[in-house]
């Protein structure tokens, strides 16, 4: 039996202490299997980013446990096994577009770097910008570079936090299509946090979040 990519039991996160403590995530148990594609839908402040950061191993829980049976230890998550697309691009300003996309591959010592970078840039219509610096890009172009950087890794687990929030509707849908095509062809486990129902309906499984509480999953018709 294939182990889950992520497993959590009673996972929770609070910020602050005492009477000033704010609950970001109520105790949550979940399991994410190999190749699953999940949309985490909820309004701003519902706990989506908190949960994603815990799943990514970027933050420590204040309660419960989380593990990555299908990957290994927390130390094995980076630089290649887990990729996360944040709401803002966070590109390195002194590196070109192609160098930004290649960075995780170089850190991970992956030998197919050039082909992976080229394919990721082509899939997002960014090849013409390969030699530009981030300061020469629009905000939307920079965000697509961040998506390309994650896709080039072909990680075991891809997490995306409002990845189309900085894009217009048409570009956002095209970017999401490129992401979904990539993860489906490579059987990558994918979790996308969004407040946009148009994004959520493109993914097979829907999880809802309200006030730091994860609602039971439901299946949706993906397109």
Gap between N and C termini, in Å?
29 Å
Rounded to the nearest angstrom, the radius of gyration is 17 Å
Secondary structural class: alpha/beta
| Average pLDDT rating | 91
Per CATH, the class reads Alpha Beta
CATH superfamily: P-loop containing nucleotide triphosphate hydrolases
Order of helices and strands: EEEHEEHHHEHEHEEE
Contiguous helical run count: 6
Low-confidence stretches: 219-223
Number of domains: 1
CATH architecture: 3-Layer(aba) Sandwich
Q: Work out the helicity level.
A: 25-40%
The tally of strands reads: 10
Strand content: 25-35%
In the CATH hierarchy, the third-tier topology is known as Rossmann fold
Shape descriptor: globular
For the largest beta-sheet, the strand count, sense and barrel status come to: 7 strands, mixed
Descriptive tags:
7-stranded mixed β-sheet; globular; 3-stranded antiparallel β-sheet; 223 residues; Rossmann fold; alpha/beta
Please explain how this structure is put together.
This protein has 223 residues and is an alpha/beta fold. The chain has one domain: Rossmann fold, CATH 3.40.50.300. Helix content is 30%, strand content 25%. The strands form 2 sheets. Strands 3, 5, 6, 7, 8, 9 and 10 form a 7-stranded mixed beta sheet that branches. A 3-stranded antiparallel beta sheet has the order 2-1-4, with helices on one face. A hairpin with a 6-residue loop joins β1 and β2 (22-32). α2 packs across α3 (113-123) and α3 (113-123) crosses α4 (139-153). The chain is globular. The two termini are 29 Å apart. Mean pLDDT is 91; it is low at 219-223.
